[in-house]
Amino acid sequence: MAEPDREELKVREWIARYVNGELSFTEFLLRVRQVGIVDLDAIQLDVDRRRRCGFPEVVYGEGKSLESLERVFRAMVERGIDVLATRISQDKAEVLLSKFPGARYNPVGRTFRIPLPTSQSREEVQGRVTIVTAGTTDLPVAEEARETAEWTGAQVTMVQDVGVAGPHRLQANLHLLEQADAVVVVAGMEGALPSVVGGYVSCPVIGVPTSVGYGASFAGVAALLSMLNSCAANVTVVNIDAGFKGGYIAGLIARNAARARAGLPPATVSSR
After folding, report:
1. Backbone phi and psi for residue 139, each to the nearest 5 degrees, phi listed first
2. pLDDT digits (tens, 9 = 90+) for 149-172
Protein backbone atom coordinates (compact mmCIF):
# COMPACT_ATOMS: atom_id res chain seq x y z
CA MET A 1 0.00 0.00 0.00
CA ALA A 2 1.29 3.48 -0.92
CA GLU A 3 2.47 5.78 1.83
CA PRO A 4 0.06 8.63 2.61
CA ASP A 5 1.12 11.95 1.10
CA ARG A 6 1.47 15.25 2.93
CA GLU A 7 -2.09 16.37 2.20
CA GLU A 8 -3.56 13.09 3.42
CA LEU A 9 -1.61 13.32 6.67
CA LYS A 10 -3.04 16.79 7.22
CA VAL A 11 -6.59 15.53 6.76
CA ARG A 12 -5.99 12.65 9.18
CA GLU A 13 -4.69 15.10 11.77
CA TRP A 14 -7.73 17.36 11.35
CA ILE A 15 -10.10 14.39 11.68
CA ALA A 16 -8.44 13.41 14.95
CA ARG A 17 -8.62 16.98 16.25
CA TYR A 18 -12.30 17.25 15.25
CA VAL A 19 -13.13 13.94 16.96
CA ASN A 20 -11.30 15.15 20.08
CA GLY A 21 -13.24 18.40 20.10
CA GLU A 22 -10.23 20.57 19.26
CA LEU A 23 -11.80 21.77 16.00
CA SER A 24 -15.39 22.81 15.36
CA PHE A 25 -17.18 21.31 12.36
CA THR A 26 -16.98 24.67 10.56
CA GLU A 27 -13.23 24.93 11.15
CA PHE A 28 -12.74 21.33 10.01
CA LEU A 29 -14.79 21.91 6.84
CA LEU A 30 -12.90 25.09 5.94
CA ARG A 31 -9.56 23.31 6.24
CA VAL A 32 -10.64 20.31 4.18
CA ARG A 33 -11.85 22.60 1.39
CA GLN A 34 -8.32 23.99 1.11
CA VAL A 35 -6.68 20.58 0.73
CA GLY A 36 -4.72 20.32 -2.49
CA ILE A 37 -4.15 24.07 -2.83
CA VAL A 38 -0.81 25.66 -2.00
CA ASP A 39 -1.04 29.43 -1.57
CA LEU A 40 2.05 31.05 -3.13
CA ASP A 41 0.87 34.65 -2.86
CA ALA A 42 -0.55 35.47 -6.30
CA ILE A 43 -0.34 31.80 -7.38
CA GLN A 44 -2.71 29.09 -6.18
CA LEU A 45 -0.90 25.85 -6.99
CA ASP A 46 -3.14 22.83 -7.50
CA VAL A 47 -1.16 19.93 -6.02
CA ASP A 48 -4.17 17.57 -6.08
CA ARG A 49 -4.63 17.51 -9.84
CA ARG A 50 -2.73 14.25 -10.35
CA ARG A 51 -5.21 12.43 -8.08
CA ARG A 52 -8.24 13.95 -9.83
CA CYS A 53 -7.08 14.10 -13.44
CA GLY A 54 -4.26 11.57 -13.75
CA PHE A 55 -1.43 14.05 -14.36
CA PRO A 56 -0.15 16.96 -12.26
CA GLU A 57 -0.66 20.64 -13.01
CA VAL A 58 1.47 22.01 -15.83
CA VAL A 59 3.01 25.48 -15.51
CA TYR A 60 2.42 27.96 -18.34
CA GLY A 61 5.63 29.97 -18.15
CA GLU A 62 5.00 32.89 -20.48
CA GLY A 63 4.50 36.12 -18.55
CA LYS A 64 5.60 34.67 -15.20
CA SER A 65 8.60 36.15 -13.40
CA LEU A 66 11.67 34.11 -12.58
CA GLU A 67 10.85 34.43 -8.89
CA SER A 68 7.34 33.05 -9.42
CA LEU A 69 8.60 30.15 -11.53
CA GLU A 70 11.24 29.20 -8.98
CA ARG A 71 8.73 29.34 -6.13
CA VAL A 72 6.25 27.14 -8.00
CA PHE A 73 8.92 24.64 -9.07
CA ARG A 74 10.25 24.28 -5.52
CA ALA A 75 6.75 23.72 -4.15
CA MET A 76 6.14 21.01 -6.74
CA VAL A 77 9.49 19.29 -6.23
CA GLU A 78 8.97 19.23 -2.46
CA ARG A 79 5.71 17.34 -3.03
CA GLY A 80 7.17 14.81 -5.46
CA ILE A 81 5.57 16.33 -8.56
CA ASP A 82 7.20 15.81 -11.96
CA VAL A 83 7.52 19.41 -13.19
CA LEU A 84 6.61 20.39 -16.74
CA ALA A 85 6.56 24.05 -17.75
CA THR A 86 5.81 25.37 -21.24
CA ARG A 87 6.75 28.58 -23.06
CA ILE A 88 9.93 29.18 -21.04
CA SER A 89 12.34 31.59 -22.74
CA GLN A 90 16.04 30.79 -23.17
CA ASP A 91 17.20 33.50 -20.76
CA LYS A 92 14.86 32.34 -17.99
CA ALA A 93 15.81 28.71 -18.61
CA GLU A 94 19.51 29.46 -18.11
CA VAL A 95 18.84 30.92 -14.66
CA LEU A 96 16.45 28.13 -13.69
CA LEU A 97 18.90 25.42 -14.77
CA SER A 98 21.44 26.85 -12.34
CA LYS A 99 18.90 26.55 -9.52
CA PHE A 100 17.59 23.09 -10.47
CA PRO A 101 20.60 21.00 -11.58
CA GLY A 102 18.45 17.98 -12.45
CA ALA A 103 16.25 19.96 -14.83
CA ARG A 104 16.16 19.71 -18.62
CA TYR A 105 15.38 22.49 -21.11
CA ASN A 106 14.26 22.02 -24.71
CA PRO A 107 15.17 25.27 -26.53
CA VAL A 108 13.16 24.35 -29.64
CA GLY A 109 9.94 23.44 -27.84
CA ARG A 110 10.64 25.96 -25.01
CA THR A 111 9.74 23.37 -22.37
CA PHE A 112 11.37 23.00 -18.95
CA ARG A 113 11.24 19.74 -17.00
CA ILE A 114 12.35 18.61 -13.58
CA PRO A 115 11.80 14.84 -13.78
CA LEU A 116 11.12 12.68 -10.76
CA PRO A 117 13.64 9.98 -9.85
CA THR A 118 12.91 6.71 -11.66
CA SER A 119 11.75 5.15 -8.40
CA GLN A 120 8.94 7.72 -8.21
CA SER A 121 7.58 7.12 -11.71
CA ARG A 122 3.81 7.68 -11.91
CA GLU A 123 2.77 5.03 -14.36
CA GLU A 124 3.67 1.35 -14.53
CA VAL A 125 2.64 0.93 -18.18
CA GLN A 126 3.42 3.01 -21.25
CA GLY A 127 1.31 3.90 -24.25
CA ARG A 128 2.54 4.75 -27.74
CA VAL A 129 2.28 8.18 -29.36
CA THR A 130 3.51 9.16 -32.81
CA ILE A 131 3.99 12.84 -33.63
CA VAL A 132 3.96 13.84 -37.29
CA THR A 133 5.05 17.19 -38.71
CA ALA A 134 4.13 18.54 -42.12
CA GLY A 135 7.34 20.58 -42.33
CA THR A 136 10.44 21.42 -40.33
CA THR A 137 9.02 24.89 -39.58
CA ASP A 138 6.36 23.14 -37.48
CA LEU A 139 9.05 21.61 -35.26
CA PRO A 140 8.79 24.03 -32.28
CA VAL A 141 5.12 23.12 -31.79
CA ALA A 142 5.87 19.43 -32.39
CA GLU A 143 8.67 19.49 -29.81
CA GLU A 144 6.29 20.96 -27.24
CA ALA A 145 3.90 18.10 -28.02
CA ARG A 146 6.70 15.53 -27.77
CA GLU A 147 7.96 16.76 -24.41
CA THR A 148 4.41 16.78 -23.06
CA ALA A 149 3.59 13.28 -24.29
CA GLU A 150 6.84 11.95 -22.81
CA TRP A 151 6.01 13.68 -19.52
CA THR A 152 2.74 11.71 -19.43
CA GLY A 153 4.78 8.51 -19.66
CA ALA A 154 4.18 7.69 -23.32
CA GLN A 155 6.74 6.22 -25.69
CA VAL A 156 7.03 8.82 -28.45
CA THR A 157 8.05 8.41 -32.08
CA MET A 158 8.68 11.45 -34.28
CA VAL A 159 7.98 11.50 -38.03
CA GLN A 160 9.13 14.79 -39.54
CA ASP A 161 8.62 16.70 -42.77
CA VAL A 162 6.02 14.48 -44.47
CA GLY A 163 3.55 17.15 -45.66
CA VAL A 164 1.08 16.73 -48.49
CA ALA A 165 3.37 18.44 -51.00
CA GLY A 166 5.22 15.10 -51.13
CA PRO A 167 2.69 12.40 -50.12
CA HIS A 168 5.15 9.58 -50.85
CA ARG A 169 7.10 10.66 -47.74
CA LEU A 170 4.13 9.82 -45.52
CA GLN A 171 3.58 6.45 -47.17
CA ALA A 172 7.21 5.53 -46.53
CA ASN A 173 6.68 6.10 -42.79
CA LEU A 174 3.25 4.53 -42.29
CA HIS A 175 4.73 1.64 -40.29
CA LEU A 176 5.64 4.17 -37.58
CA LEU A 177 2.02 5.29 -37.30
CA GLU A 178 0.10 2.03 -37.46
CA GLN A 179 1.05 0.81 -33.97
CA ALA A 180 0.37 4.12 -32.21
CA ASP A 181 -2.39 4.55 -29.63
CA ALA A 182 -2.72 8.19 -30.75
CA VAL A 183 -1.18 10.27 -33.50
CA VAL A 184 -0.51 14.00 -33.19
CA VAL A 185 -0.30 15.78 -36.55
CA VAL A 186 1.30 19.23 -36.52
CA ALA A 187 0.75 21.27 -39.69
CA GLY A 188 0.44 24.83 -40.92
CA MET A 189 -0.27 26.27 -44.38
CA GLU A 190 -3.58 24.68 -45.49
CA GLY A 191 -3.54 22.09 -42.69
CA ALA A 192 -4.47 19.12 -44.87
CA LEU A 193 -2.15 16.51 -43.34
CA PRO A 194 -4.38 15.31 -40.43
CA SER A 195 -7.09 14.27 -42.88
CA VAL A 196 -4.60 12.25 -44.90
CA VAL A 197 -3.16 10.59 -41.80
CA GLY A 198 -6.68 9.88 -40.54
CA GLY A 199 -7.33 7.80 -43.62
CA TYR A 200 -4.44 5.45 -42.80
CA VAL A 201 -4.72 4.72 -39.05
CA SER A 202 -7.30 3.20 -36.70
CA CYS A 203 -6.50 5.38 -33.67
CA PRO A 204 -7.46 8.96 -32.74
CA VAL A 205 -5.63 11.65 -34.72
CA ILE A 206 -5.12 14.98 -32.96
CA GLY A 207 -4.59 17.85 -35.35
CA VAL A 208 -2.47 20.77 -34.15
CA PRO A 209 -2.67 23.73 -36.55
CA THR A 210 0.37 26.00 -36.56
CA SER A 211 0.75 29.65 -37.47
CA VAL A 212 3.14 28.73 -40.30
CA GLY A 213 2.25 30.10 -43.73
CA TYR A 214 1.83 33.15 -45.93
CA GLY A 215 -0.78 35.89 -45.52
CA ALA A 216 -3.88 33.95 -46.53
CA SER A 217 -3.13 31.36 -43.85
CA PHE A 218 -4.19 34.06 -41.35
CA ALA A 219 -1.60 33.01 -38.75
CA GLY A 220 -2.97 29.49 -38.51
CA VAL A 221 -6.69 30.18 -38.84
CA ALA A 222 -6.80 28.59 -42.31
CA ALA A 223 -5.15 25.40 -41.00
CA LEU A 224 -7.47 25.37 -37.98
CA LEU A 225 -10.59 25.62 -40.15
CA SER A 226 -9.30 22.96 -42.55
CA MET A 227 -8.73 20.54 -39.69
CA LEU A 228 -12.13 21.29 -38.16
CA ASN A 229 -13.67 20.51 -41.55
CA SER A 230 -11.79 17.23 -41.94
CA CYS A 231 -13.83 14.44 -43.48
CA ALA A 232 -11.71 11.82 -41.67
CA ALA A 233 -13.92 10.69 -38.78
CA ASN A 234 -11.04 9.99 -36.37
CA VAL A 235 -9.58 13.53 -36.49
CA THR A 236 -10.05 15.97 -33.62
CA VAL A 237 -8.40 19.37 -33.30
CA VAL A 238 -6.80 21.60 -30.67
CA ASN A 239 -5.97 25.30 -30.86
CA ILE A 240 -3.36 27.03 -33.02
CA ASP A 241 0.24 26.28 -31.94
CA ALA A 242 -1.09 24.28 -28.94
CA GLY A 243 1.51 21.53 -28.99
CA PHE A 244 1.04 21.05 -25.26
CA LYS A 245 -2.67 20.32 -25.65
CA GLY A 246 -2.06 17.86 -28.47
CA GLY A 247 0.62 16.01 -26.52
CA TYR A 248 -1.42 15.96 -23.33
CA ILE A 249 -4.54 14.50 -24.95
CA ALA A 250 -2.47 11.94 -26.83
CA GLY A 251 -0.81 10.97 -23.55
CA LEU A 252 -4.19 10.44 -21.87
CA ILE A 253 -5.40 8.25 -24.73
CA ALA A 254 -2.15 6.26 -24.83
CA ARG A 255 -2.10 5.67 -21.10
CA ASN A 256 -5.60 4.18 -21.02
CA ALA A 257 -4.89 2.09 -24.12
CA ALA A 258 -1.73 0.72 -22.48
CA ARG A 259 -3.61 -0.09 -19.29
CA ALA A 260 -6.22 -1.98 -21.30
CA ARG A 261 -3.51 -4.04 -23.03
CA ALA A 262 -2.04 -4.86 -19.63
CA GLY A 263 -5.44 -5.99 -18.32
CA LEU A 264 -5.64 -3.04 -15.92
CA PRO A 265 -8.75 -0.93 -15.34
CA PRO A 266 -8.86 2.62 -16.73
CA ALA A 267 -7.17 5.18 -14.54
CA THR A 268 -9.74 6.60 -12.14
CA VAL A 269 -9.84 9.20 -9.43
CA SER A 270 -8.50 7.71 -6.22
CA SER A 271 -10.15 8.22 -2.87
CA ARG A 272 -8.39 9.88 0.04
Report:
1. -60, -40
2. 999 999 999 999 998 888 889 889
